[in-house]
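Running low. Invent one:
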Amino acid sequence: MRILFVHQNFPGQWVHIARHYQREGHEVVAIRDQANPKKDFLPTAAYGFTVPEMPKPHPVPLANHFEERVARAEATAVAALELKKRGFEPDLIAGHGGWGESLLLKEIWPKARSILYAEFCYRTQGADTDFDPEFGIPSLRSRLNTATKNAVMFTALAYADRGLAPTYWQRDGFPEHMRAHIEVIHDGIDTTFIKPEKDCVISIGADRLIFRPGDEVVTFVSRNLEPYRGYHIFMRALKKIQKMRPKAHVIIIGADGVSYGRNAPNGRTWKEIFLKEVEADLDMSRVHFVGRVPYATYLSILQVSAAHVYLTYPFVLSWSMLESMAAGCLVIGSRTPPVEEVIEHGKNGLLVDFFDTEELADTVIMALRKPGKYNPMRRKARDTIVQKYDLNSICLPKMCDLFERVAAGKT
């Protein structure tokens, strides 16, 4: 089978399935943004893309998002034509619907079947945009802008032979008449690699502080430290946690940028804003910002965690939450729909109101005070991932079945 993967940040969500088909000897190629710094493991065609300069004032501001995605689709089509000139004719195209890259590829290869990663449907109510009142109630103009963001995804999904979503909540965000076209298969968690490690040792900071499983370590992970992942809520809970647990240390993984939502005002970062808000009340010698770290370091930090906090708006569920459960963490998560799909309160983790800093602090304190009480919950957390999200026994076989069905026209 000849397979083309398309993702600006390749491999992205396609990492496991692309590696699988490469190992199996299939002809596998990827198209990615040439600005993507990740090392290629497949033959790759990179497309050059710059955001098109829009006239000011733009005659139709609501079209900005669509125009940018169509420009990216055109750049991807140019890269695809180069592949076609070299004789590459895919049986199957697997693309991501969010950036528009897959939009025109059926015009290059009309006979190719296609799968579209339908990660998220923007909604003006009941999801991320109207969730956190601290950042204002969306105006009508803002809601209209949100609504138009689905234009590229919906068009690409209409052309695709099958859609793919990683969770039921993400699939169910799409209009009801589209859901039957979208299968739910998670990308998969490698539980043979990600697992508890009782002998794990990690050193943190300039003082090379040593932490092991059993130490009072509270962990928090986000690609970027921002409101969408509850960074502001977590920081506000730290004062009480530190006061009640004077030996507890906090390790925070995440960069200073923005992955989702709006930028911080006045050229600042969300990390800076919410740290400054509470810094005077914290013992900063026990708060460790480690930025982005190598994967092995990230995993070791999870393995020494006594309480792992995962907060999110009603939005895309992070790999890190499932990985932390596979590593045997006690996850204290937000009572929001993406988290509730995986964590059942009191069974395989603990849930708190996203906005309730007191409840969050009290739950972390309770976890640190009686760690042995939660060992069955940690084991159940790992069992959940092994039984429902394991890469090799569950998700990869389901993904292969989907790819082969679609390639054979059995949609």
The chain has two domains: 2-188+391-407, 202-388. The chain is about 35% helix and 15% strand. The mean pLDDT is 95.
